[in-house]
Amino acid sequence: MIDDIVCTFLGTCARDFEALEKADCRGRFDKDARRSSCLLIGDSLLVDCGTHVLDSLAIAGADISKITDIFVTHFHDDHFNPEHAERIAEGKTSPVRLWCRFDAEVPPLRGVEVMRMHEGVKYPVFPTLNAISVYANHDETSFPNHFLFEVNGKKLFYGTDGAWMTERACVCLRGADVDVFITDATCGDYAGDSRATGHNSIPMIRLLLPSLRANGIISDKTRVMLTHIAPSLHKPHDETVKLLRPEGLIVAYDGMRFTL
Ligand SMILES: [Zn+2]
Ligand SMILES: [Zn+2]
Fold it and tell me: Residue 2 Cα, ligand 1 centroid: separation in angstroms?
C-alpha cells in the first residue's frame, strides 16, 4: 500500500499582511494573522517561496534540507523571493529545481536549476509525482500559472493567484476529477471589488464550481479549499468557516494539514 501524502498550508494570505504585522505571531501560526501563501506537499515539494516562507517552514517544523523542488505560481513577491529560494538551495549536493512557466523571466539564482513548463504538458517530477502547468488569469507580467499535481494516483489542483479559470486551462483540466481543488479566495462574500479581475471573491467561487463540475474537473469526491485570503476583505476565520462550511467549502489556515 502507498502511504498517504501529507500536505501543509504554510501560508494562506493574500498580500495583506497588516493583521500579521499588528499581532505578535513570532514562532506560531494564527488563523487571523496569515502569512504569505505557500503549500508543502510531502516534505520535498514546495509551492511558492514568498515573503514568509522561511518563518513558516520553521514554525511547521519542516526540514528545509529535504526540499528538492519549488513550483512558482508567479513572480509577485508574496509568492517568490529570490533570497529565500537560494536559502532553501543552500548546502545541497544537487540543485533545487525551480519549476515555472516556460516564458518566465527568472533572475540568476545560486544552487537553483530552472525548469520551464509548457502549458498542458505533463512533467515527471518524481517517479510517483507528475505536474502540469496551466496559465492563470492574473497580472500577465508576473507569468502566472496554476498546477495540477498527480501524486500516487491522486490529483491536487493549486490555483492562486488568479480569477476564474482561462478557457485553455479548462480544456487542459477537463475530466481531471481532482481529489483536492485549492483556489484563490482573496475577496470576501460581496460583489464589486476592483481586484476581482485578477482574484476570486466568494460569490465568484459559488458560480465557478458548478461549471467546473460540468467540465468534470471536480466532482462530489473533491475537497474544495480556499486560500490566498485577504484578512481585511473577509470576516474573521471562525465566522468565515461557519458561513462556508454548509456550502462544502473548506477555509484553509496557516498550519492546516490534509492528506492526499
Ligand atoms: Zn498573491
Ligand atoms: Zn499575485
Answer: 34
Q: Closest ligand to 185 CA?
A: 1
Kindly list the protein residues that place their beta carbon closer than 5 angstroms to ligand 2, a single-atom ion.
76, 161
pLDDT value at residue 232: 97
Say if CB 252 and CB 226 are below 8 A apart.
Answer: yes
Rounded to two decimals, the pTM is 0.97
The grid cell for 98 is 525551480
Q: How large a percentage of the chain has pLDDT more than 90?
A: 98
In contact, 119 and 80? CB cutoff 8 Å: no
Max intra-chain CA distance, the chain: 50
* Each residue's pLDDT tens digit, 164-223: 999 999 999 999 999 999 999 999 999 999 999 999 999 999 999 999 999 999 999 999
Distance 141 CA to ligand 2 centre (A): 10
Task: Tell me the three state secondary structure of residue 87.
Answer: helix
CA of 216 to the centre of ligand 1 (A): 27
CA of 159 relative to ligand 1 center, distance in Å: 11
**Closest-CA residue to 89 (of 105, 71, 107, 68):** 68
Between the CA of 93 and the centroid of ligand 2 the distance, in Å, is: 32
User: What domains are there in the chain, each with its CATH number?
Assistant: 6-259 (3.60.15.10)
Q: How far is the CA of 197 from the centre of ligand 1 (A)?
A: 13
Instruction: Starting from the CA of residue 136, give the closest ligand.
Output: 2
Give pLDDT tens digits for 46-100: 999 999 999 999 999 999 999 999 999 999 999 999 999 999 999 999 999 999 9
Q: Summarize pLDDT for 26-61 with one digit per residue, the tens.
A: 999 999 999 999 999 999 999 999 999 999 999 999
